[in-house]
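Kindly review this record before class:
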Amino acid sequence: MNYRYWIFSSFVILFSNGALALSCSPTQDRIYAVCDSGVCETFLYVVEVGSYPKCSRRPSIEQLPSWAKEVFEFELRNSELSDGQGVYELVLDGRSWSRSYIFSNADEYRLYYEKAKQKEFALGELNRISGKSKDELEIEWRLKEKKEYRKMIMFKALDWLSLVIAAICLVFSILWFYKWQRSLISLRWAFLAIGIQAVIFTFAFASMSTWSTQLIMSLGIFIPGIWLYQITTFVSLWWSNRVRT
């Protein structure tokens, strides 16, 4: 059986790989407050910020915006929970990757609130927290903040490590294919070279759909060009050998 047809078939199969697309969902920020008869004090502001890998979020405790107290009490007055006493949570949706909301003050929030109400969707969702104090919630969110930050650092380190390993393997695979073309090594090294390139290419495409390791995606871009060169030289050698015979 002619091994050249096997190599050519391998390239055809590898080029048939596809990729999935992933869209980033909006953030969900949270404001906690201790309220009594519609008056709220002792706030906690937890926002979702961009993390690593892409489209990931991690919580971050930040300074309370100037509009927060007025917006929170406005939501409380317009809810069925206005007479209660305890800890409340206001979940704000709709901030994509921007650092700002569609409103900048309480008056704009009221305006958007009325428009959102007519379209039957809410800017914020108010909930009452049972069984936890504001201090307990703050401790819980600070632990999550630290945990997600460490997770982000770990993914960044993994991304760089995978890039370095993949780059080294790619260089060796190119050298093995080149040596096989010069009849310096056996055929199995050519198959191994293509296999390594296929693994890197598939890993890069998988990263494109999950955004798990972004750096290796840039390396995967070069592999189709490498395959094009290898296919061209392979066909050239195959044709020259055929003419000779």
Observations:
- The chain has a mean pLDDT of 79.
